[in-house]
Amino acid sequence: DAGVTQSPTHLIKTRGQQVTLRCSPKSGHDTVSWYQQALGQGPQFIFQYYEEEERQRGNFPDRFSGHQFPNYSSELNVNALLLGDSALYLCASSYFITPLQPQHFGDGTRLSIL
Amino acid sequence: QKEVEQNSGPLSVPEGAIASLNCTYSDRVSQSFFWYRQYSGKSPELIMSIYSNGDKEDGRFTAQLNKASQYVSLLIRDSQPSDSATYLCAEGGSGGSNYKLTFGKGTLLTVNP
User: Fold this and answer.
1) Which residues of B35-59 are buried (b: 16+ CB within 10 A; e: fewer)?
2) Half-sphere exposure of residue A112, counting CA atoms within 13 Å on the CB side?
3) CA distance A82 to A17
4) How far is it, in rounded angstroms, from Cα B32 to Cα B27?
5) Alpha-carbon dihedral of residues B39, B42, B43, B49, nearest 10 degrees?
6) Helix ranges (DSSP H) in B18-72
7) In the predicted model, what is the mean pLDDT of chain B?
8) How far off is chain A from B38, nearest CA to CA, in Å?
9) pLDDT > 90? residue B8
10) Which residues in chain B are closer than 8 Å to A48, comparing Cβ atoms?
11) Which own/partner pairs from A58-62 qualify as long-range (CB within 8 Å, at least 24 positions apart)?
12) Do A43 and B51 make contact, defined as CB atoms within 8 angstroms?
């Protein structure tokens, strides 16, 4: 049973560029949440997608956008990259109808901004 | 703004000892709480979930929840060097609609052989 998969594993970009990160949820899960984890910090919620719509959003600027596809996979897009966007980006999946159940994380994408 | 506070540590215990990790949360109506373990450079791995007041045991791990005090803890018995990691406490909301996780900053645990 495949878990949450993310790609790419690592990415290096320069300031001002744009990046797209990808996530496939655990088999059977229909909800995808994205988190940003800066060094030495806990993960911070970016947004959550269900039925191809953004359902909740954390305190992140509009430079952060996302998409969910009919097969439940998801993309995170970040425009006009800043040095402060350097972080581990985590995708988590879950079932929408059981909101209190744990979210399962992928291995993450480490994004470095030069 | 929901908040989750953890002792930043680091916490150092000898092998075989009990490690005690603590967490407080601000949202009184929260119903779900989780402990994740994160090894350096890796993603968070779920080790315990707890929803009701009291203790929940799973092997060497015991989670404790006190909703009146808004307090969650994790005890690790017979600590092993392989338990050395950052432990993240997370609050998962009160249901209704699918929730977001609010994490603490994590506590770094080192188990010394």
Assistant:
1) bbbbeeeebbebbbbbbeeeeeeee
2) 5
3) 9
4) 11
5) -20
6) none
7) 93
8) 10
9) no
10) 98, 100
11) A58/B100, A60/A36
12) no
Strand partners, A11: A111
Instruction: Find residue A6's DSSP bridge partners.
Output: A23
CA distances from B14 to A38, A52, B7, B79, B112 (A): 29, 49, 19, 8, 5
Q: Is the distance from CB of B39 to CB of B27 less than 8 angstroms? A: no
A76 in Cβ contact with A66 (< 8 Å): yes
Chain B positions touching A108 (Cβ under 8 A) are 42-43
Task: Give every CB contact of residue B57 below 8 A, 6+ residues apart in sequence.
Answer: none
Q: Give yes or no for a cis peptide into A25 (omega within 30° of 0).
A: no
B11 pLDDT more than 70: yes
pLDDT at position B97 is: 55
Which of A29, A27, A64 shows the shortest CA–CA distance to B98? A29
pLDDT in tens, A14-27: 999 999 999 999 99
For chain A, the farthest-separated pair of C-alpha atoms sits apart, in whole angstroms, at 41
Q: Is the CB of residue B102 less than 8 Å from the CB of residue B3?
A: yes
**Which residues of chain B does A55 touch, with a Cβ-Cβ cutoff of 8 Å?**
97-98
Q: Of A10, A11, A22, A18, which Cα lies nearest the Cα of A72?
A: A22
Mean per-residue pLDDT, A39-63: 94
